[in-house]
Structure formats: C-alpha cells, structure tokens
Design goal:
336 residues; alpha+beta; 10-stranded mixed β-sheet; 23 strands; tRNA_intron_Endonuc_cat-like; EC 4.6.1.16; tRNA-intron lyase; tRNA_endonuc-like_dom_sf
C-alpha cells in the first residue's frame, strides 16, 4: 500500500482500513487511515506499506529528533512481535489483551517508556498508577537499557492490608537514653521482646533502636529519661534526627507498618530500610524503603532493588510519604 507523509502523520486512503480492521493499526479518519510514526515505521519494516518519497531510514531520521522516539519505537516493535495490538495512548502506549483490537476489544496495559538512566519521580509515578487503576488498566514501565534490551516492570500502588491488630501494653516500661538508643532493664520473656522489639544484651538489659523507641513512646508503652528528665517522643525524634537524616521518614513508615500488624526489622543487608514480616514468621516477605514526598531515583537504582528482592524471594516496595498518607509503590518484573 502506498502512503503519504504530511509532516506529522502517515496517511493511507481507503485501502488502509484493512490494516485497522485486521491488525488494529492506526486511527480511522473519514474514508482513510492515520498512522502514528511508530506504526508507520513498523509497517514499512514489515513491507506492508511504502511512503511516497521516503524510505525507512529517511523517515526514521525525521522522527528520531523527537524526545525518546527511538526507544518508543523499539518498545512498539517488541510488543507487536509478541503478538499484541498496541497503540499510542495515555503515557506512551496502551496494549490490548491478546486477541483484542480497537473498537471491539479492551486494552489491558498502559506503558511508559524509560531509559535505564531516566529519573523516576515517585510522586508522578504513583499518580499515574492510580489513574491507570481507575481506568482498570495495569501500569507498566518499559525500560530500554544502553544495549537496547527491554525489561518490563509492573508498578502497583498498594494500600497494605492489616494482617493483625497491633500489640498494646498495660503500662509504659521505663528506659534510659544512651546516645540515640533506649536501654530498658527487663528480664527475658517480656511482651516487648515477644513482639520482636529490641536486641537483648544480657539477662537484664534490652536495647531499643530509635524507630522502635519513638513508636513505643507514642503508643504510651515506653517512657524514656535523659539525665533524669522525662522525654517526649518529639524530643527523642529531634535528637535522633541529628544522627540520622532519614529518621523522620523511617519512623513514619515503621509506625504505619506496626499499626497494620507487620513486623519491620532492619533491611541494611539488602540495601534498604526494612525487611518486613507478616506476623511472627521465619522469613520476611517484603523489602520496604521509605521515600519523602518529592523524591526522585534513577531507574537503574530501582532495577537493582527489584533484582535483589526477586533473588531473595521478596517484594520490593517504596513507601512514599505524604502529609497524611503513605503509598506503597511495588515494582515487579513482568513477562508479557
């Protein structure tokens, strides 16, 4: 079929409608068909159309000046080769369910195309995922690395369900502040230790880390004195912030997880803030990293996190903190 290029779109006359009806290519306009640059190049590559006065290389050269165009074309081509119908849409592309086409079928995925060096803005990403969910679509990132290999990630915004009621206490336990650690004189078998708080130093002493202490103080399960004077949770938090610039984010996430019945422990060995247990289990199921509102991270760092979490059979979640809300953004590799 012979098409023409008008400077923006590639257009076919009436005979082009068969491409739409049989393969889901393009958009119908009047009696003809309008093709996006990615669609036109793919059809040229497959010898389905010719474009008057342009060969494949010349047309690609015109479009390549558009931001991210070559990567978008590589993703479009890959999705088509996998047997899906794909069209430009919200984000970069929308992908239809297998066997479905525009007009008579439903799309399944919304895809955003990134390079391995692009920056992930968690605020924008979580908003995009929520919008996709409201449209009943799955949100995917298609990441093109520097060797033009493609990796697909499904991104979900999780509202973690509560797994059990948070443990309470009858009366606050007393502790003293040493640096940013609280030291409580408690024998083995106390409720704090049973609920996986602290590290036992000996038969009489339990050491509590800052995030634990702050949470327990706010729950009125722990009272701390410094130089003989009682401290508030906010005073403790201010003191800890001088040693740990991430303590405010970590404390928010730790408290939220505890309130939902999860048990967060340090995730240092995995390069993240917490490894998280759903109750008192022998293995953690999630890695969780707290991120403040406005945080951006290179996609390469997200990729490393996801691969590590997958290798140890855990989910990778970034806990995005807003004024009154925490959104848990999960990344997982997906095979289409």
């Amino acid at each position: 079929m012979l098409a023409t290029f008008d400077g923006t779109w590639v257009r076919l006359k009436g005979e082009g409608r068969t491409l739409y009806e049989q393969g889901g290519y393009g958009r119908l306009e009047g009696a003809g068909l309008r093709l996006s640059p990615e669609e036109a190049l793919y059809l040229m590559e497959r010898s389905k159309i010719d474009v008057r006065d342009f060969d494949f290389d010349t047309l690609l050269g015109l479009f390549a000046g558009q931001p991210n165009f070559v990567r978008r074309y590589l993703v479009y081509r890959d999705i088509r080769e996998r047997g899906y119908v794909i069209q430009p849409g919200p984000q970069d592309f929308r992908v239809f369910r297998r066997g479905h086409k525009p007009g008579a079928g439903k799309s399944r995925y919304l895809i955003r195309v990134l390079s391995e060096r692009d920056i992930v803005d968690f605020d924008r990403l979580s908003q995009d995922v929520v919008a996709a969910v409201n449209m009943r679509k799955q949100y995917l990132l298609a990441v093109v690395d520097d060797e033009d290999e493609l990796t697909y990630y499904e991104v979900r915004v999780q509202d973690l369900p509560a797994v059990e009621e948070p443990a309470g206490c009858e009366a606050p336990m007393e502790a003293s502040l040493f640096g940013t650690y609280a030291l409580a004189h408690l024998p083995p078998g106390t409720s704090l230790e049973e609920d996986w708080y602290g590290k036992r130093l000996d038969s009489q002493r339990l050491l509590l880390r800052p995030v634990e202490s702050i949470y327990l103080m706010r729950k009125r399960c722990l009272s701390i004195t410094r130089d003989g004077e009682p401290m508030s949770a906010e005073q403790f938090l201010d003191a800890a912030a001088g040693k740990d610039v991430e303590i405010r984010e970590k404390e928010r996430v730790f408290s939220d997880l505890r309130e939902k019945g999860y048990i967060p422990r340090t995730g240092y060995k995995f390069g993240h803030h917490f490894r998280v247990y759903s109750g008192k289990k022998s293995h953690s199921e999630m890695l969780v990293h707290a991120v403040a509102s406005g945080t951006s991270t290179p996609m390469s760092a997200v990729s490393r996190s996801v691969r590590l979490a997958h290798s140890v059979k855990k989910k990778m979640l970034f806990a995005c903190i807003y004024n009154t809300d925490i959104r848990y953004v999960e990344f997982a590799r997906i095979k289409l």
